[in-house]
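User: Before I run my own analysis I want an independent prediction to cross-check against. Here's the chain; please return only the structure tokens and, at the end, one sentence I can use as a sanity check.
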Amino acid sequence: MEPLDGLVGEVIDGRYKVTSVIGSGSNSTVFNAVDLELNYPVALKVLSSSGSFDEKARERFQRGARAAALLAHPNIVRLYSFNISRQGKPYLVMDCVRGKTLALSLKAAGKLPVPHCIAFFTQVLDALEHAHGKGVVHRNLRPSN
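Assistant: Structure tokens:
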């Protein structure tokens, strides 16, 4: 994956000021950013396009973003916008959610009490029911995500 941390300090499309890296995965990096138009904190998920971002890839990206935009649920991060930057980088603009992942909670606590596990599982199932009701399937569900 190409390093994207060089985007910190940059302004994407004249609107989103990238302030820091939240994390990265195999095909994207998520940043803290500020929407300069609304003066509001957001998260930017920037896809690392190794090679060219062809028309098929662009269509898949747009289809996925449009599907995610259908989801409005308290346990699902809200997607506000998607675009391809002037530099050719596809990105998503989402709510910036503070906190830690279930994977980090498990690592810190080792084993969570049963009531916590039931609460987490119930929230996940509720969110999945909402997504499936809109025809959206999450293909990357795991404690670190």
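Sanity check: The beta strands are 11-12, 16-24, 28-35, 40-47, 79-84, 90-95.
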